[in-house]
Amino acid sequence: MTMKKPDEHSEDAALDALLDAARTAPPEVPDALMARVLADADRVQPSPAARAAPSSGLWSRISDLVGGWRGMGGLVAATCAGVWIGWSPPDALPDAGALILGYEAADILSNTAELTSFGWDVEEG
Known about the structure:
The protein is mainly α and 125 residues long. It has helices spanning 8-24, 31-44, 58-66, 68-87, 96-101, 112-117. This is Dihydroorotate dehydrogenase.
């Protein structure tokens, strides 16, 4: 015994007819239900927090100009890095003080101290 396969086109047409009927007459929501839903939504909504009056001090205005505490933190980090690099510059950077004063900085530590401390300057034979 074989089962007869239903026609797919007739099922699609029936479904389209049902959906068209649902679109033309949307279900009515009772007013009491809508009032309860809106009251519940109002209850769940967070209330706006009270904002403090903006401070008009000098540091507050400067902080607002640079972007708040995040901007101030970035400026502090950049200042610390600049002081550190300026105080003890890497070998690849020139000495800023010597450039300003117009003379070249001499090496205070000689390279020979490193060689003589291990006796590498003494050769056998």
